[in-house]
Amino acid sequence: MVSLLLVGNAQAAKGQLLQDYVNNLVTFKADFIQTQPDESTFTENRSQGQMELSRPGRLIWQYQQPSEQKIVVDSENLWVYDLDLDQVSVRPIKDIKNEIPLSWLLYNEPIEQKYDIIESSSRNGMNWFNLTPKSPTFFQSIDVGMKNGEMVEVWMYQGIDNITKVKFKNIESNKVIPLQRFQFEVPAGIDLIGQPK
């Protein structure tokens, strides 16, 4: 019994390293490269762009290549602007909060409230944490890679062979980002699908 308690306390302490990082994070801005397997062609889709985050509850995730798309979380709504389709869709956050892969980072909630945290072995010069949702979501688990106290990679598993990998670079943490950046206005002449809260 004592050994089991010690193991449990050790895992909690390891998970606390990630929780402490999140607790101390106010804003996060970075360029990203995202890769995802294409099951139909057995190749890898690659996209890149920028992201900005302001805790709690605000996020911009903007793809620039190979096609432009802007995703905005304004604390109440999730907006998706597809520039190729000239279309904007919106959904209230309360309906999809648990489906947002970065919800563990975005909100002021203890990570262990919704995820089991396991610190994995170090690889590629990073310390890794695995987050497994306690309730079913569209992804099975998330790996978070930390280096020098900073989040540098996030891997999202939808299946053993379906892993979306995001690598961050040019990271700026806890710099001022005006909240106006996270306000989304539907451009004139663009179709809107859904109703904001």
Q: Rg, please?
A: 18 Å
Strand order of the largest sheet: 7-8-9-10-11-1-2-3-4-5-6-12
Give the distance, in angstroms, between the N- and C-terminal Cα atoms: 50 Å
User: Biggest β-sheet: count, sense, barrel?
Assistant: 12 strands, mixed
Write the CATH architecture name.
Clam
Count helical runs: 3
> Ranges with pLDDT <50 over ≥5 residues?
1-12
Q: Going by CATH, what is the homologous superfamily?
A: Lipoprotein localisation LolA/LolB/LppX
Structural class: alpha+beta
- Shape type: globular
Protein name: Outer-membrane lipoprotein carrier protein
Main location: periplasm
Organism: Thiomicrorhabdus sediminis
Keywords: Chaperone, Lipoprotein, Periplasm, Protein transport, Signal, Transport
